[in-house]
């Protein structure tokens, strides 16, 4: 699917030679296509030209541009785009935050992930299981077992039910930090919740015990 970005650009350029007006919908579509094609710089360039074209970006526009940046590993640029939205009176939603949190998770940006969770709460947005899982993943990548376990507790406080991914990732965080007690505690917690630990859960817990 990402390989079709070139066709989208050809059609976009063809519109420029007609009297057909390029709308926010067409901008969103092309920015999304460029993002899926890994062309985040071109997606950013299109976003930047919208004001001069008299087209106001929307939440969907920024979501597409931010997704393009995250897909390319450009977490800082994605975060900067999110911050640009406020002066434009565009409010980020949970989905947009989750996209950025996913990027933080893959790169182990645990401090940024925790800050994003708190920012969501401050804006009246309720982080969901996807939000927390991404933040726990960031903590695991950053070897921050205590923070990962604290996030599990925060989920309970927020009435967000942890799933197997939440717990397995927290166990992985304990493994990386050499916290075998924490790993076993989460494994026990999974059973008490009626969850069935999977191969990832057991493997991480075994490794934590072997190296702890």
Poorly predicted ranges:
none
Q: Distance N terminus to C terminus?
A: 45 Å
- Kindly estimate the percentage of residues that lie in beta strands according to DSSP: under 5%
Helix content range of the residues, please? over 70%
Task: Output the structural class.
Answer: mainly alpha
Instruction: Give the rounded overall mean pLDDT.
Output: 92
Total strands: the figure is: 0
Q: Helix count, per DSSP?
A: 12
Rg, alpha carbons = 20 Å
Compact overview of the structure:
By secondary structure, the chain is mainly α.
Description:
With 212 residues, this protein is an all-alpha fold. Helix content is 72%, strand content 0%. It contains twelve helices and no strands. It has helices spanning 5-16, 24-36, 40-49, 59-71, 75-85, 94-107, 110-122, 129-141, 145-157, 164-177, 180-192, 199-211. The longest helix is centred in the middle third of the chain and has 14 residues, at 94-107. It is elongated and about 65 Å long.
């Amino acid at each position: 699917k990402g390989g079709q970005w070139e066709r989208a650009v050809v059609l976009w350029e063809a519109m420029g030679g007609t009297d057909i007006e390029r709308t926010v919908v067409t901008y969103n579509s092309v920015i999304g296509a460029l993002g899926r094609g890994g062309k985040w710089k071109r997606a950013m360039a299109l976003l930047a030209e919208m004001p001069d074209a008299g087209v106001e970006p929307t939440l969907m526009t920024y979501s597409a541009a931010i997704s393009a940046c995250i897909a390319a590993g450009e977490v800082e640029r994605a975060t900067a785009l999110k911050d640009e939205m406020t002066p434009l009176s565009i409010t980020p939603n949970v989905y947009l935050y989750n996209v950025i949190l996913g990027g933080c998770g893959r790169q182990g940006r645990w401090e940024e992930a925790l800050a994003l969770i708190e920012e969501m709460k401050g804006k009246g947005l309720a982080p969901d299981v996807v939000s927390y899982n991404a933040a726990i993943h960031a903590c695991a990548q950053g070897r921050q077992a205590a923070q990962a376990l604290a996030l599990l507790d925060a989920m309970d406080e927020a009435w967000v039910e942890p799933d197997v991914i939440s717990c397995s990732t927290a166990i992985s965080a304990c493994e990386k930090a050499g916290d075998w007690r924490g790993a076993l505690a989460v494994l026990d917690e999974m059973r008490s919740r009626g969850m069935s630990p999977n191969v990832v859960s057991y493997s991480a817990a075994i490794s934590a015990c072997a190296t702890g």
